[in-house]
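lol ok so funny story. i was supposed to be doing the assay writeup but got distracted and ended up predicting the structure for this chain instead. priorities right. anyway since i did it might as well share w the group, maybe its usefull for someone
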Amino acid sequence: MKLHDLQPVPGSNKKRKRVGRGHAAGQGKTAGRGTKGQGARSGGGKGPYFEGGQLPLVRRLPFARGVGFTPRGRVVFVPINVGRLSRHFEAGEEVSPETLAQAGMIKKPTQAVAILAEGNLNRAYHVKAHRVSKAARAKIEAAGGSIELLPKP
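and the output, tada:
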């Protein structure tokens, strides 16, 4: 194959519509612009800012922004249910943010982890997490496991 052999796939290139070339061409007279009015004139039409007289979105935004605030030191916890642990870990293994990240349950080992109680637990684990719910703590200890709380990142 040479450069002069290359050509577009049949049907991928459409011919340009030539408007305003007479009645017989199908797009004559008004050339698809309708009759009179702003849209029929050259340079006509409203800009993206105009919303029919309604206060435009760009001018409404500062008012919407002032609702509430996000605390700077906020810590977002990734919830992990005890029922998911048995799918990724063997009995007696350590469950920590590092091992959770290796197992693909959280994205990064630096994320704060909260252990929640949904699901059943029938194996003992040594759980290291930043937060553990009371019900999850009860399930882990009932299965013979232990819990170590980590400081918030």
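The chain is about 20% helix and 15% strand. Helices lie at 57-65, 82-88, 97-102, 134-142.
back to the writeup now i swear
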